[in-house]
Design a protein that fits this description.
Elements lengths: L2 H14 L1 H6 L4 E3 L4 E2 L6 H6 L1 H12 L2 H4 L33 H6 L4 E3 L32 H10 L2 H7 L2 H5 L3 H9 L5 H17 L9 H10 L7 E4 L6 E4 L1 H13 L6 E4 L18 H4 L3 H15 L4 E3 L7 E14 L4 E3 L2 H4 E3 L18 E13 L15 E13 L5 E6 L7 E4 L26 H10 L10 H12 L1
Antiparallel strand pairs: 1-2, 1-12, 3-8, 4-5, 6-14, 7-8, 7-14, 8-9, 8-11, 10-11, 11-12, 12-13
Helix pairs in contact: 10-11, 12-13, 13-18
Length: 493
Amino acid sequence: MSDERSVNQLLEAFARDPAQALDALPPKHDRQGREVHKTAFAADSIASRRYVDGRDDLRRAQAMIDRGVLIRLGDVLPGRAPYEFSDRAESLVDRLTYTDLATMEEANLRSAELRQSPWSDDYWAICRGILGARYADPAFPGGDRWEQNRRYTHERPPASIIASGDALAIERLSPSEKYDLLIGDRSGGLTRAMWAEGEGYFERYGKVETWMGICHGWAPAAYMLRRPRREVTVLAADGVTRLRFFPSDIKGLASLLWAHTDTVSRFIGGRCNDRDPARDRVGRVVSQHCFDTNPGSWHLAVVNQIGHARRSMIIDATFDYEVWNQPLFSYRYHHFNPQTLRFSPTLHGAKVPYRDFTRDWFRTYRSPNVASIAGIVMTVGYVVETAPSHAPTDSPARDAIHEVRYVYDLELDAAGTIIGGEWYTNRHPDFLWTPPVDARAKTSADAFARGAWDPNQPLPESWRNAASRAAASLTSAAPLARIVEGLIELADG
């Protein structure tokens, strides 16, 4: 199907029934154009929209707000979502260089793709023990019942597997169990912390929700750290056991590091935790929390960050249960005329002087400085999770990328500068975030790891002690950054 035809079909659906179009879930496709559905939420949670509450509860439990990872937003009045302090593209992107559609087009920025995709990884579900999951063990239950998964590993402790001398069984240990052996932690501190995270949920609710995991750590790690391209064999602390860390093991440790350590991040947008936010007569969400991010902020951020800076950022769409903490990879956009709701091959044909815009469903919310309106249909490519494996190598060919289309218009002032806009779907990006380009996730214990690590020798004693200290917390246990980065260096060298 041609771009013109598919864009016109989207716009025709909006013209027929704006309320239905506004509330529709944007379809997702893989890179081959096949429609896909990918979610960790159960059907009843989606139907009741309990997942909205669940996401917010998990964010609070992970203390993201206190760490400044995502948001520090106060309450704001409902209604229009203009460029608030928390919704300015310059608060997010590395450099805000392009602020109007004409210069974006002159710079050939109507489409862009990163030189390499952020790497795919599992979201390491809490119900499967996070990094305590023996994902390569064919006998490991691996389903959504936390207690079964925990019982299996408890009845088959790593110490007995090591004592058996079964090389294949040792190879199939979980990433956290291999890590505990690497640092010589006989108490299995990191692994105990992995299972403890689900234990509290299980004791309170009798189950652990399938969607709970560490995608908030994977998403930034996937582009802030290099890709582990091959397996690495290193010596355990006992000086005898050789441990094979596969790319999936190393990715898991990297994701946990970024999930459980204090990091600085920039963000724009709001946090919508309303199950059923108020709508106007057209169907547009009027709650400010649920309208953000403003389409103007979104467009400026995507073009300047992905197109110009060529660095990823993370998209979170609270009301789209298929998109949560996904690193962006690419975008392309087409124009449409908002008055006629038809595809336009040129920017000139898509711009409508506001005085002539008589078909405006969102007039109540427009900026007083708007001079013209331009329609945009943007297709965004984002990286999604994949199941961990014992594949000995990894490359961008193994990444999973999905695409989604967002329809919106942009408000332009008399100089053509983007000053706002309106979404044509309520299920749009809720907020965007990224660590700064020079950010690094590390534990407080990293400062105590002295000297260098020779992978042909056991870890230095100071590294082992520091690593045990970093893993001691049952609520924020993390691998040592120097070990994770060292494994990546070996796997990418």
